[in-house]
Amino acid sequence: MPAVLIENVHKSFGAVEVLKGVSLSVESGQVVAIIGRSGSGKSTLLRCVNGLEACQSGRIEVAGHVLDQDQKKLRELRKDVGIVFQSYNLFPHLTAGENIMLAPRLAKGLGGPELRRMAEEVLAKVGLSEKFDAYPDNLSGGQQQRVAIARSLAMQPKVMLFDEVTSALDPELTGEVLVVMEDLAKAGMTMLLVTHEMNFARNVADVTVFMHQGRIWESGPSADLFAAPKTPELQAFLSAGVH
Amino acid sequence: MATFGWPEMLFIFRSAGWTLLLTLVAFSIGGVVGAALAIMRLSPSRVLRAIASTYILVIQSIPVLMVLFMSYYGLSLFGIGLPPFLAASASLAIYASAYLAEIWRGSIESVPFQQWEASSSLALTRPQQYRYIILPQAVRISLPPTVGFLVQLVKNTSIVSVVGFVELSRAGTLVSNATFLPFQVFSLVAAIYFTICFPLSRLSRHLEKVMNAGRPH
Amino acid sequence: MKFTLNFDPIWPEIDAILEGILLTIGLSAGAIILGSMLAVLLVALKSLAGRWVGLLVDAYVELMRNTPFLIQLFMIFFGLPLLGIRMSGTQAGLLAMTMNLGAYAAEIIRAGVESTHRSQLEAGVSLALTRLQVFRYVVLKPALAKVWPALTSQFVLMMLASSICSFISVAELSGVAAIIESRTFRSFEIYIIVTLTYLVMALALKSFLLALGKRLFPNLSGVARINARGSAV
Ligand SMILES: Nc1ncnc2c1ncn2[C@@H]1O[C@H](COP(=O)(O)OP(=O)(O)OP(=O)(O)O)[C@@H](O)[C@H]1O
Ligand SMILES: [Mg+2]
Prior knowledge:
heterotrimer; B: 217 residues; mainly alpha; MetI-like fold; 8 helices; 81% helix; C: 233 residues; elongated; binds adenosine-5'-triphosphate; binds magnesium ion
């Protein structure tokens, strides 16, 4: 069974239909990149997957949970599905360590030295062992984003969602975040990511999906898709170079 | 005719203590009610929102004096004869709750919505989100206006003599009537109010500056 | 204890209530107009006159903002006669309201003035306007437009605070209520009526002022609004 299964999802904001029947599946351990122009519905799709947006019709199944707007079921799903945002969204009043330990403690009932050890472990994974007691304000954007990734990892998710996690960063800081994500991919994490980093999609993602006007316009193994785009829209998108 | 001497001054100073106590009690009770109202204003339930906004709109659109009369006579209608201090605190608490609710709702709303999204994505329940994520940040934001409102509350305690309680202003009136020295007596009373309120006003403004200088969170 | 509301004894008093309403409106309108003029004067003094005048203005504003309206009213009504200045309760009430509102409105308008961009000032100066002209024509109007919603709240609060004038037996709405209460002993009933009247007046005054703001500052409605805080009493 696929780790993420999206079937014929429709989503409108008011009268504007943003997703016009999207279907997509991600196998366990697979990395799928979503690319496309601004406004094509990439973020909306990703946010539908963990229930931050409710879609009007269609079916979504993630990590064995059928998406349901019932709050209790939604929480169960979210324990297994991590999401990282473009704007990091760390909790500014908590240290990096506290940011990481909060949800495992509250949602999963973990605690004690075990929890702390786990937090140190995920922080080490993103290369920030020494920042356990630092507040977000005292971290660079790249460091904040890595803490945000660690915060999601601490829930030991089965699926990770990333929404343009490097777009808010200065070019010299994107590298350190992409390295972390590449390591995760190599370690076998199931990942669905929206990105404007074409090289990353080409080199790391198994499958790349091109969205256009609320539809999946073209998709395929990353190497093929980038080497030989079939639709004129994707050709134009890739050759424009400005994403 | 009495003179305006030490006993009279002492009486006035002691009444200032009642003003402070009244402020404290009204603020505490009003704060609890106000917090509940603020949460109601932000709840997903339309009914709760409507109840809270109507209450707030009404209290903010009538004189504090009327809040005092209404709660005093309203309660005594039902045979609840409150002692003056309780009547005064209860009425001022009702008044304070509406204003604090609005201040705090504003503070909660100014916590970026991404904080809600990030915490709900981490499987936190709504009460957990309030307790661990939203309120700690909202409290910080709310400090300057809350301290500012405290000044309004102190000043509004001056009219509770209508429900029979003797605090600073009433004490001033009593001494003034007895001594026929209104200018001196009310100058002293004003000076005491100023001594309480001015530092609070400055603190409020200072906190505001600190926050504005702070980082954009 | 059972209690039934009985409004019957109050109906004959309707005329008195209407007179009370009229006086409340009169006091509020007077205080809003005079208080606004005082406020503009204070702000102008603060930004145009010398340092000492500015400090005096500050002292006045702080004094007014940090003492209760009731005590200000008492000082004027009971204190001024000792200096040979005699006035009726209504006059004292109007004076106290004007002085109080002047201080609060000054603080609000000052926030608006301070947000006026330096470039606008320089543009005005380079047009060879005097400092007073710059204040009058360049600074004041956009400042008022920006803080109009805050001023509106303040004006409504002042109208509500006019009820405190009943402490010196001014027969505005609250004062009338006290008189009727002592005649009819229907305390709760009369205060229900008066409270509802205030509610309607406050909502009406607020809509009126907001509409007036759109009238006065038609092309500035999109200006970023400053919500200077403050509230009377
Ligand atoms: N909360 C919302 N309310 C109304 N419209 C929205 C909302 N969120 C997104 N939209 C609209 O939906 C469309 C798709 O938005 P979405 O954020 O999914 O695009 P995107 O592909 O992620 O673009 P970008 O690359 O700029 O992030 C856009 O036209 C956007 O304006
Ligand atoms: Mg997006």
